[in-house]
Amino acid sequence: MANDARDKIWRTVGRIPPGAVATYGQVAKESGLGRRARMVGRALRALPKGSDVPWHRVVNARGEISLPAGSDSAREQRNRLQEEGVEFRGGRIDLARFRWRPNLDELLWGPADG
DNA sequence: CTGATGACTATAG
DNA sequence: CCTATAGCCATCA
User: Which nucleotide minimizes the distance between its C1' and the CA of A67?
Assistant: First the structure.
């Protein structure tokens, strides 16, 4: 169905470990969607209310929360990230330190064996 | 159908 | 740091 891309995105976001963040473009690429970064935002917006998907671990390419400043969702995202140990400096996250590296997961945990 | 919008990004100046 | 431009594409008016 037309929600294939959305499901892929949700699965990819679900793989982001606590304390790490990924960018929209990164999620798109990891999901095999190329440059459709906007689709990622669209998919996250469509998340059901009680979803387990860690949507808060997705930020824009500048390491900032891309939700409307001051919105409940933006505050929730920031709170959750800070609870996980992600640091904000001047409203930004240092992607060099907190960016999710799927490759590193494979190196440490193995490609798919779990 | 057209045109604007948006939880985006890369590049150029 | 900023703005402008171009690419991307589902969704809405």
Answer: B7
| A68 CB burial (10 A radius; 0-12, 13-18, 19+) | exposed
Spatial contact of A44 and A9, defined as CB atoms under 8 Å apart: yes
A38 touches strand C (CB under 7 A): yes
CATH 3.40.50.10540 fits A4-109, yes or no: no
| CA of residue A42 to C1' of nucleotide C11, angstroms | 10
Summarised one tens digit per residue, pLDDT across range A67-112 is 999 999 999 999 999 999 999 999 999 999 999 998 877 778 777 6
